[in-house]
Amino acid sequence: MKNRFLRVESILKGLSYGIVATGILSVGGYTGIPYTGGCVLLFLAGLYGDFRTARFPPRIFLNILALAAMIFAIVRVRTEDIVIPVIELLMLLTVVKLLEEKKIRDYLQIFGLSVFLLAGSALLSLDMIFLLYLVVYIFLMGAGAILLSYYAESPDLVLEGRVIMKLVSHGLILPLVVLPLTTVLFFLLPRTGHPLFETFQRKGIGTSGFSDHVGLGEVSVIQEDNTVVFRVRAKPLSEEKLYWRGLVLDHFDGKSWHSFQKAQKSPSFPPALQGQRISYTLYLEPHGMDSLFTADKPVNLILRGAVRGPGLTYKTSRPLNRRLRYEGVSVLSEFLPEEEIDRAVWLQLPGDLPQIRTLVTELIRGADQQEAVQRIYRFLKVGSYRYSLRDLPVSPHPLEDFLLKRRYGNCEYFASAMAVMLRTAGIPARLIGGYRSGYYSQTGGYYIVLQKNAHVWVEAYLNEKEWVRFDPTPPYQESGSVNEAGFFFRMGMTLDFLRYYWNMAVIGYDMQRQFHLFETLQTGLKNLDLFKWPAIRDPVKTGWSNRLTFLTLAGLILVIMGYALLRRNRPREDVLISQFLARMKKLGYLRGPSQGLLEFVREVSDEELRKKAGCFVNAFHRRYYRDRRFSRRDAVLLRRLIREIRKSPGN
Amino acid sequence: MIRIKRAGWAYITLTLLIGIAAINTGNNLIYLIEAALLSFLAVSGFLGRINLSGLKLEIVFPDEIYARKAIPVQVILFNPRRRIPAFLLRVTIEEQVLLYPFVACREKAVQSVDLSFDRRGMHILRNLKISSIFPLNLIVRQRTPSDNFSCIVFPQPVKASPGSWPADFRLEGDSWNQDQKGDDPEVLSIRNYQRGDALRTISWKATARTGTLKTRERKAPSRPPLILDVHRLDLPGLELKLSCATFLLIAALRRNVPVGLRLGNLIRKPGTGRHHKLRLLRDLAEVSYEEPISQS
Lengths: 651, 296
Description:
The complex is a heterodimer.
Chain A: E1 5-7, H1 8-28, H2 33-53, H3 59-76, H4 83-99, H5 104-124, H6 129-153, E2 158-160, H7 161-171, H8 173-188, E3 213-215, H9 219-222, E4 228-233, E5 243-249, E6 251-252, E7 256-258, E8 276-284, E9 291-292, E10 294-295, E11 298-302, E12 306-309, E13 313-316, E14 324-332, E15 335-337, H10 343-346, H11 354-363, H12 369-381, E16 386-387, H13 398-406, E17 408-409, H14 411-424, E18 429-436, E19 439-441, E20 446-450, E21 454-462, E22 466-470, E23 480-481, H15 487-507, H16 511-527, H17 533-537, H18 539-567, H19 572-586, H20 597-602, H21 607-624, H22 632-644
Parallel strand pairs in A: 16-17, 19-23
Antiparallel strand pairs in A: 1-2, 3-7, 4-8, 4-20, 5-10, 5-18, 6-7, 8-14, 9-13, 11-14, 12-13, 15-22, 18-21, 19-20, 21-22
Chain B: E1 2-4, H1 6-25, H2 28-52, E2 56-60, E3 71-79, E4 86-93, E5 96-103, E6 107-115, E7 121-124, E8 129-132, E9 139-143, E10 150-153, H3 176-180, E11 187-192, H4 204-210, E12 214-218, E13 226-229, H5 238-254, E14 259-263, E15 266-271, H6 274-285
Parallel strand pairs in B: 13-14
Antiparallel strand pairs in B: 1-9, 2-3, 3-6, 4-5, 4-8, 7-10, 8-9, 11-12, 14-15
Helix pairs in contact in B: 1-2, 5-6
């Protein structure tokens, strides 16, 4: 860069293209292919025009193009999806601006439209990638706006490479200060209880999971899917106890299970359960269904709009199209007491199943109810059946095929088989759909549950008093903590950890959490004991209140220090003279308004003091009139001389 | 002083629109954009303030400034700060704008501007401003320098008709050569060149020997001194008398004619040399106006 000269406008143009490219990237995946492709072509044409030919289409032509695009967009707008057409229009208008011969207002419009594009991308996706776009925007916009100032002052300005480098290095202060300030302001900006136009939010793309029916062989597709269904902030738990209950299936039609039990009476609530009681927070991704998942067996769930369904399940009033966060309390138990059930519902079978009936009759011959259940369970779990996700028996009689011919299948074959066998034996049974286990992130302290954790198990009604959980599927799932997995899996977990905090801290931040944050800060300030060092050294034990307050205070101190550093801009010689005069003033000598330093010192009556002050002034003058900058060494020496100035002991 | 620019209003509108969108949709990502926009606003205000703080302005006038004659004035912007350079500064001086794209730490940036003053006398430069739109072109921040900058403007030299000149003074021809024929050829000394020395007085031999420009000082010619009694010049009005006196003073001193001055009670003895010339011109410039005028 040395001795090179650059036109400000050229750099400004480059930055504008960078900003628009980021904007297109942020929304390009969601807009229609013709739009995206067309915009990319126009973008390239603008690039070519600006940096190669310096030829631009007539403005009137571009204005007509923009107008036509607007009319087309208005025609296309439908109330159910306003966002996409509007974003496509914005994208087109932005690239059309790039084609023009740009003046200052054009650059301003490009910047403004790009901000709207980024805002549009926020309506399309809540993914963490937004943060990357935002950071890129902050840097490019910061630099662009600084250069735009130069351009506004003098459009033909040419700057030396050295000046550009200085501008870059000092211009970096802008985004580097903007970033933390943005974070602080984000948490402080007032939130409302209910957004007015929540319908403008594009619905989250739900991951297909369970619906109110489970067909044999259907779950296997889900089980190969690594999409995150939900994350649960909880302490690590014993794996065999971890079942995430979602829906209860009662009706089997020979090929699939359905949930028709709306008329069923719910058990008394909360049920009298015995076992380990856990509290957790669940962050549910949009899945397009109404099921809410809880640790098996739930006793409480805190979420506005959640309704309790039959069979100890929870649902939302409408299909879930956005992220949800709720608190839950569960007792990890295999038993669910229920005194009275409608036996006809739980003994339903799809007509006569002679082969299965023969098999069951053989299997449970001479056994009582308890023994019969155990025999059927062991027959499937540790018998000659194996777990498989491939080439599953899909036929007019899949269950018979599974039990009598192929002898392999996945969880819904095992669970269906057990439930049907139990019902054939006259024992009420049902299928429970949900998820099994999950991956525990030690770093984040939460479980990730993926679609591949989808699972179906059985509950059998025993002893006329309770439902008992049976999981006849042979062990198959990979699980365990992050550290046990491979490199890519670990990377994936780390990425998920970031995504988890992104969802928790950014996406899920609302008025309630804002109040909570302020309350926490207030409490922390009241109780904070800065001298209680152990509390600060061990933040885990002190809780959020102290940690947050401590972080806020530390942040404030950093800001004040930064400000003080910036304020410390006075030249060294000024600072030294001020220090010298302050010292003299303390000793009773005040310099007159236009008195020279030597003149001032000559008037000092105390001989010892005069000598010392004179010594400083002479040393100062020797350096000052050398017409060179004061070095650090000079400053140290002169400061020492100032310290030595004191009255003689006699006076 | 702060003035919001049109781009600033556009930025505020954009921030408001995004803010409304954030509240209406409850979308936290739009809240993030809003926070970033507000942060830019706050930080740019802060940086803009720092950018203007502590800057010092120096103005260097030429030694001789005559009324109604454009003179080059050096406007020096000094950035005494230790760490933070100054960016994109404008200095407005007598309605002319100078741009300083960059002033490094503890360095000076110099720009030149042509100024002309209509009237003689002491002029204090007013309407002097340092302003900047740095960093984001949203607001113009402006500061008036605390120092006063003043200069003395000498009367405009006017060559009135020779009939109005003092009886004992005649220019012996207008050309230098003719005039110089009578100069004493004896060289008194050789000194360093000073601005205003005639080209022909330069001693090229001495210059070549020392490497710096040297001027020959000749013995003053034995000429009768010229005493300029301004009020007795046969011209209408004080201003014309002062202008004519200025012309004569310059012309006579250029010919090494010792010039003295009588201005009412003020009497200056005849003399030559640059210092003497400036003193007399200053005397002429500082004569009170016949009618009080408003300072421009």
